[in-house]
Amino acid sequence: MELLAPKPGERILDLGCGDGALTEKLVAVGCHVVGVDSSEAQVEAAQRRHLDARVMDGERLTFHHEFDAVFSNAALHWMRDPDAVIAGVWGALKPGGRFVGELGGYRCVEKIRTALVEALHRRRINGKAIAPWYFPTVRAYSARLRNGGFQLNYMALIPRPTPLPGDIAEWLETFAGSFLSRVPPEERNAYIAEVRDLLRPQLCDARGVWIADYTRLRFSATKPF
Ligand code: BEZ
């Protein structure tokens, strides 16, 4: 939010708005905000907050030179065609508009992914290519933004070990569905328990708090006039 520096009256697109928790904060500043998300359930949750939220695929944005800024938090790493996203954002912005975001960065959840792959490997399933996430380096994402016509103002890869509100098993059930779905339903609990055992020495602290090995790529770019 600080990097975005939203001003009252600005028209802002929240790309991957989820349930609208951050969209609401932009509205509170006095911005006119449109939220888009590919999940109908998330868009409905955002609409219950009385936000202008729409179901739209981030890789197929359909806006035309109408926003002062595009903002995105914890969503871009779910979009596997970053060039299509960047092209859509470019098309959505007015000349001089800002693209400000944060996504999982290079090696985000590497320990979790390695454990998920290892526990599949023990079941003779090759899980190396399953991860549904895009976690770019500074170099790779800067190059994509520049190729997409943006001028880069700031980018940093930030380690962000993140304490989880609950057990790692809940995180796996929420975010690792593409791995879990490779295991027959009757074996899923055993698979999760095995991944949990592999991760406990690495990610669970002495108080029993699970800490996800997140990294973040944070950036600010401008569409030139
Ligand atoms: C996140 O929501 O930030 C996230 C989700 C899946 C993997 C890594 C990060």
What does the model show?
The chain is α/β, with parallel strands linked by helices and 225 residues long. It has 2 domains: 1-104, Rossmann fold (3-Layer(aba) Sandwich), CATH 3.40.50; 106-134 and 160-216, Vaccinia Virus protein VP39 (Rossmann fold, 3-Layer(aba) Sandwich). It is built from 8 helices and 7 strands; from the N terminus they run βαβαββαβααβαααβ. The protein has a 7-stranded mixed beta sheet, sandwiched between helices. β4 (67-73), α3 (82-92) and β5 (93-104) form a beta-alpha-beta unit. The chain is globular. The mean pLDDT is 98. It binds benzoic acid. Residues 74, 104, 108-109, 133, 175, 214 line the site of benzoic acid (BEZ). Residues 74, 104, 108-109, 133, 175, 214 line the site of benzoic acid.
